[in-house]
Amino acid sequence: MPDRLDRKPVRLDPRLPWLARTRRFLSPMAGVTDRPFRTVCRRFGADIGFCEFVSATGLTYGGEGSWKLVDTDGEQGLVGVQIFGSDPEHMGQAARLLMDHQMDVLDINFGCPVKKVVRKCGGSALLADVPLLERIVRAVVGASTVPVTAKIRTGWDEDSVNYREVGLLLQELGLPWVTLHGRTRAQLYTGEADWDRIADLVATLDIPVIGNGDVTDGQSYARLVRHTRCHGVMVARGAIGNPWLFAQMRAVDEGTAYDPPTFAAMCEVLIEHIRGEVAAKGERIGSQTVRKHVARCFKGRPGAAHLRKAVFAEDTSEGMIAVIAAAAARGEPALAGEAGRDG
Questions:
Q1: Domain ranges of the chain
Q2: Cβ atoms of 63 and 272 closer than 8 Å
Q3: What's the whole-number average pLDDT of the chain?
Q4: How far apart are CA 99 and CA 235, in angstroms?
Q5: Catalytic residues
Q6: Residue 341: pLDDT band with limits 50, 70, 90
Q7: What local confidence, expressed as pLDDT, does residue 185 receive?
Q8: Could you say which of 3.20.20.70, 3.30.1120.10, 3.40.50.10950, 3.40.50.410 is the CATH number of the domain covering 17-254?
């Protein structure tokens, strides 16, 4: 099926023959993009999914919690691992250790704005120290046997916007693509992503730029690509509880009509996701992990708030599944008397 959107011709890395047709990226997200969720998103059109981002220092020192996040072995489909840290030696050592695990790319996190990452000079903090950023990239590239990519923001704040400088450096260092989130670190997740800056980086670089920021449905996906001519789009928060976002994006790419799922079909996917989380992590952690998806899944539907409350009142995954299955049988989230209430 031909691509329906106008995208800038780019220089593709021969090590990644699949990149030419890879358009829809699931971003690494802490506590979200585990293997069960990646599997669900792939089913609806995600071309590649990333694990939760993981501390290079934690991997270097053999932290059990860190290594559990690298849950890729035997995975069907394209998968990436993303690491963060501020110590070039630890970043290089983590890359070497990771080479025993399945992955198609190894991504470096230069974009995370959260305090617990930034206060250790990781994530987007490195945009304020480009020489250290360069040393980290060289250490990771030198240690990795798979292609290395990076995700950045537009800069630390409006007074230090440097995405073009960083993007050109990453291209010079041999990275096959760069992902740009259209906000500064100071913005966190507030305001609007600056798509003009994504478009500028697309025009500046010869390698693919993956756009990121404010894509929540098929229409916003199409607008971002048309505005920027980016090679692909990475989605993060918009996919939480909404794997159907990838089906909307795929419909845009293929020039077909998007057929939204019925409420009952959404319930079936959510039940599948719950069972996948419990199988992967055990009853307690698995049923807790999926709650963030339940909280967003039916947002806006009449009675959704009641359904969320009823699901969260259950102590077991089977109890949660029973509540969702009963709602699916009714064909709506609401019980009698609840239909007029907003979710």
A1: 17-254, 263-330
A2: no
A3: 93
A4: 26
A5: 112
A6: very low
A7: 84
A8: 3.20.20.70
